Amino acid sequence: MNHLLNISRSGINSLQQKLDVTAQNIANVNTAGYKSQSLQFRELLHNPITSNQAPINEAVTTASISRGVQGLAKQDLLQQGTFSETGNQWDLAIEGAAFFGVRDENNQLLLTRAGAFSQDETGRIVNAQGQAVDMNLIVPTDQWPKGTVNVTSTGTIGIVHDNQQTIVGQMQLYQPTNLNELSATGNNTFQLAPGAQVIASNQGNAIRQGSIEQSTVDVAQSMTELLVTQRAYSLNNRVLQSTDEMLSTINRFTD
Predict the structure, then answer these.
(1) Residues 6+ apart with CB under 8 A from 100
(2) Which of these, 54, 33, 67, 49, lies nearest to 190 by C-alpha position?
(3) Contact at 8 Å (CB) between 70 and 42?
(4) Is the alpha carbon torsion for 105, 110, 114, 115 positive or negative?
(5) How confident is the model at residue 62 (pLDDT cuts 50, 70, 90)?
(6) Is the pLDDT assigned to residue 25 strictly greater than 90?
(7) Rounded distance between C-alpha atoms, residue 29 and residue 35, angstroms
(8) At 81, is the secondary structure helix, strand, or coil?
(9) Beta partners for 167?
């Protein structure tokens, strides 16, 4: 009987994870560069049983009872979102599987697909959290001329002033060798695991200036998953309640 309690508990915990993931997807439907998450379920270990423990049909050679289910969250970082044109000269989107690099307060490299950048009061190009975008500078940002910014598809940054263009830097893109070595750090950024390898290369990718990559969340699918998961959660609760009632009945017999 304890097996039933454990199985129901694992089901409720996993479905709660599913609800959390679905709710997070819906909440980030308008977050630039956000990649939708999914939850994969896997069966837990089986415990073998014998005919002394439970009635088993003679045709069954091996019998076991599952320990329940476990949920494992997964984020599809390779899924390409649609592009939305903004006209902002520092709004950038990536066509391809690469990431922008930003530096946190400890100068640690973080990766992101959210390219809604701006120029702060010191001239640095930063994201919404004030983290500097990683780039190869030819001219220090505090010496950039005033003018129209032009970012090519290969990431070359030029500023047009007095009918002349000055190349001031190169936007750097990063491609992790193993996406499983990335962990979310919040604010749509990802941190590399210790020892993880990343390739600093713009090859095979293109930067689109004046556009941002939209979230990959499918609202209709997310709402459907929410309803199905809520129903399954309710059924697991009923199984748990029925098991509790059976245990109460057995306890009364043994009194």
Answers:
(1) 92, 94, 111, 112, 113, 114, 115, 133, 134, 171, 173, 174
(2) 33
(3) yes
(4) positive
(5) low
(6) yes
(7) 9
(8) coil
(9) 158
